[in-house]
Automatic annotation (TrEMBL):
Gene3D superfamilies: 3.40.50.880
The Putative glutamine amidotransferase domain, residue ranges: 48-267
Organism listed in the record: Pedobacter panaciterrae
Pfam families in alphabetical order: GATase1_like
Keyword Zinc (UniProt): no
Protein name: Glutamine amidotransferase
Keyword S-adenosyl-L-methionine assigned: no
Swiss-Prot/TrEMBL keywords: Glutamine amidotransferase
Length: 270
């Protein structure tokens, strides 16, 4: 599968941020004076989700480091052509620190700023954009609370509140799903009785005006929560659409339909 990283020539599409990773190794220690690392691989864990969405739309995918390096104004260009923004396993600070911004050779001793990308996304959702925030070690609060979404400008937009501490809930025995609102268009008619065990999720609390659609059966924590902000819609899935938490989830017979229905809902097609 060839993943698109450029804007489509025309029409609306989905901008998918995150779920790329470099695999490096194995590492060999043969001497007390050094190590040797052999092999490296760039892998897109979101490939399975893109396959599901591309039945109904085009998808552009960017890794966290590509987002980080986007020059000012480029994210706005992507959003202008997007009906939905997917953020999956991306720290909030990836939206802030444009590296060339700190290049002294370019500053010419001038005080400089550039628009806050999270505020741009907030306004984009308010004006009708659809946002999906998906779980993982770098989502919501995340591992060691490093993700920072609860302290971000986008916090007021999300239909859930993040913990102020690490929010990872994990078990090798897996967790299952329990539907709370089976008539909601994003989850209606799916084979929830065959939902496979997921190995973890981010613990959050739903905001008062949000809708809990699915919860974790074993703990009661929200798993799927939907909300609105201005003219826009938001869909949060607190586990991972990809491995490692979602290695079984990708095999679910309702996987494709789940993401297609979620996308159609945030696009207001249902």
């Amino acid at each position: 599968m060839k993943v698109k990283t450029a804007l489509p020539a025309d029409g609306k599409h989905v901008l998918y941020l995150g779920d790329w990773v470099f695999h490096v190794g194995p590492m060999f220690i043969e001497t007390p004076f050094g190590t040797e690392t052999k092999d490296a691989d760039l892998h897109f864990y979101g490939e399975r989700m893109v396959e599901a969405l591309e039945h109904i739309t085009e998808v552009t995918s960017l890794a966290n480091w590509e987002l980080y390096r986007l020059e000012p104004g480029k994210l706005e260009e992507y959003l202008k052509h997007s009906e939905c923004l997917v953020i999956s396993d991306v720290e909030a600070k990836c939206f802030h620190l444009y590296p060339s911004f700190f290049d002294r050779s370019r500053r010419e001793n001038k005080i400089v700023t550039f628009p806050d990308r999270l505020n741009i996304i907030k306004e984009w959702v308010y004006n009708g954009g659809g946002l999906m925030m998906l779980g993982g070690w770098l989502s919501f609060s995340g591992v060691q609370a490093k993700s920072g979404w609860g302290r971000s400008l986008l916090n007021s937009v999300l239909p859930v509140d993040c913990l102020l501490v690490e929010d990872l809930v994990e078990s090798s025995a897996g967790f299952t799903a329990e539907v709370v609102n089976p008539e909601h268009p994003a989850v209606k008619g799916l084979p929830w009785d065959k939902f496979p065990p997921i190995f973890g999720y981010n613990e959050v609390s739903a905001k008062p005006d949000a809708e809990i659609l699915v919860r974790v059966k074993e703990t009661g924590h929200p798993l799927v929560v939907a909300g609105e902000y201005g003219k826009g819609r938001l869909f949060t899935y607190m586990s991972d659409p990809a491995p490692h938490w979602g290695i079984n989830f990708e095999l679910w017979e309702g996987y494709d339909a789940f993401w297609q229905q979620a996308l159609n809902w945030v696009k207001k097609q249902k």
